[in-house]
Amino acid sequence: MKDKLAIAVLISGRGSNLQALIDAANHNDFPARISVVISNVPEVFGLERARKAGIPALVVNHKDFSTRAAFEDALMLALRPYSVDLICLAGFMRILTPHFIQHWPQRIVNIHPSLLPLYKGTDTHARALADGQREAGCTVHYVVPEVDSGALIVQARVPILPDDTPQTLADRVLAQEHILYPQAIAQIAPGLLKALEVRR
Ligand code: GAR
Hints:
Layout: E1 5-11, H1 16-25, E2 32-39, H2 45-52, E3 57-59, H3 68-79, E4 86-89, H4 98-101, E5 108-112, H5 124-130, E6 135-142, E7 152-159, H6 166-199
Parallel strand pairs: 1-2, 1-4, 2-3, 4-5
Antiparallel strand pairs: 5-6, 6-7
Residues 11, 13-17, 46, 90-91, 111-113, 174, 177 line the site of glycinamide ribonucleotide.
């Protein structure tokens, strides 16, 4: 049986969650290696992080395509040479449609900065504060066509403090994201590796 998953990480920005995955994958016992990083936005810092780690770092700029399907076709073409087992969305800010998702059933995961099913979408921290929540957090979940709605894998919780702003809360949650994402991959890897073996 294959001992490590080949993963692709899709990003749109600074890539601090990508960095957490790169750091985790540097440990021998982590059950995944990052085969490729793809950004839909050119020149973002996450691409530099990947290159510094010796990982192929590509851009598939969504602005170069007139439809979502054409963008997703280009993404699939870019992924093909890397034979990836799992796709990790890490601050990837494009909605993927069934056109793409159907090719990767239960094999795309995302990290989202809220305690799903609360606060799907954007501005999660400002909305949690506006609602007077006492707790916030982050979730790793499978990606399905309905945004931020797939089965939950793991969550981490943080308290909301009286003086919190969206930024201070985002910082506290982000620190947990960096722990949670590698944990989630480690948790699902054995089952996925077994399933891939059966299909071979
Ligand atoms: C992270 O907080 C991640 O949870 C969020 O974007 C940030 C990316 O930061 N993702 C989403 O909101 C997806 N809906 P990073 O580029 O430093 O990893």
